[in-house]
Amino acid sequence: MKKLVLTGAAGRLGSYLREPLTQLADELVSTDIAEDIGTLYDGESYVQADLADLDAMIDVLKDADMVVHFGAIGDEAPFEDILGPNIIGAHNVWEAAYRNGVKRVIYASSVHAVGMHKIADNIGIDAPHRPDTFYGLAKCFAEDLGRMYWDKRGVESVHMRIFSCAQVVAPRSLSTWLSYDDLIRMVTAAITAQTVGFSIVYGISNNDRAPVHNTGAGHIGYKPQDNAEQFAETVLANAPPADPTNLAQMTIGGPFATIPLGESGLATMTIVDDSKKT
């Protein structure tokens, strides 16, 4: 490929994607609303741009082959805050992709698009939307947007329902962990797959306790290699007793299933900021 675009390049997950994405195209254009993202890798350039600005997205995606769309508010927030970057921003990325003839959008969707499903249901990629927050609702919108742009305009997309892409520090992560290496494997597979049309894949590692399955997504070629079970003894030794009446422990959305709409879910969790520095 000649040109890849990465939105959300200043974020924690974006920081791990930048270097490997430079290996997949002659040019990587990273973009975010931050003033800068540190030292650039060989073949990488940076453009400060707002997802809610359609003209800016059209300019950034000019001559791109594909776009890896990770830009958004990454937590529950009031609907009026989610609307610009997460909903209007998704529309602008797909519309800019269509106008520029971009082949494929690789989208960072989320477990929270289906977060109210029960763990015991062991859902697959065909499970209906069941969002747990405004944040999850925005992911549902983008998934439906991607399906429509494939059906009506021929823009391919892969929607990666990402789970817990962070250090394993709590019992829930033993089932929901996505390692950074598996994140890179999944994004690479979504880019290099021959054809995808409209596709959904769960962004989760090869965990023994995984609450979902990727049956039906084999054409993408994502083969996770890491397993959170290696952390089980340490994590469970320090954990309080399980509570089967706690909805946060019964649903795949975890604590996002129980927080009031519009209030932060990450504030109830322990997320280590181990962003990759350049």
From TrEMBL:
| Domain NAD-dependent epimerase/dehydratase, residue spans | 5-164
User: RNA-binding as a keyword?
Assistant: no
Which residue windows are coiled coil?
Answer: none
Q: Name one Pfam family in it.
A: Epimerase
| Keyword field | NAD, Oxidoreductase
State the Gene3D superfamilies in the record: NAD(P)-binding Rossmann-like Domain
Q: Does the keyword NAD apply?
A: yes
List the PANTHER family hit by this protein, alphabetically.
Answer: 4-EPIMERASE, PUTATIVE (AFU_ORTHOLOGUE AFUA_7G00360)-RELATED, NUCLEOSIDE-DIPHOSPHATE-SUGAR EPIMERASE
Family of the protein in this entry: Belongs to the NAD(P)-dependent epimerase/dehydratase family.
Output this protein's name: Uronate dehydrogenase
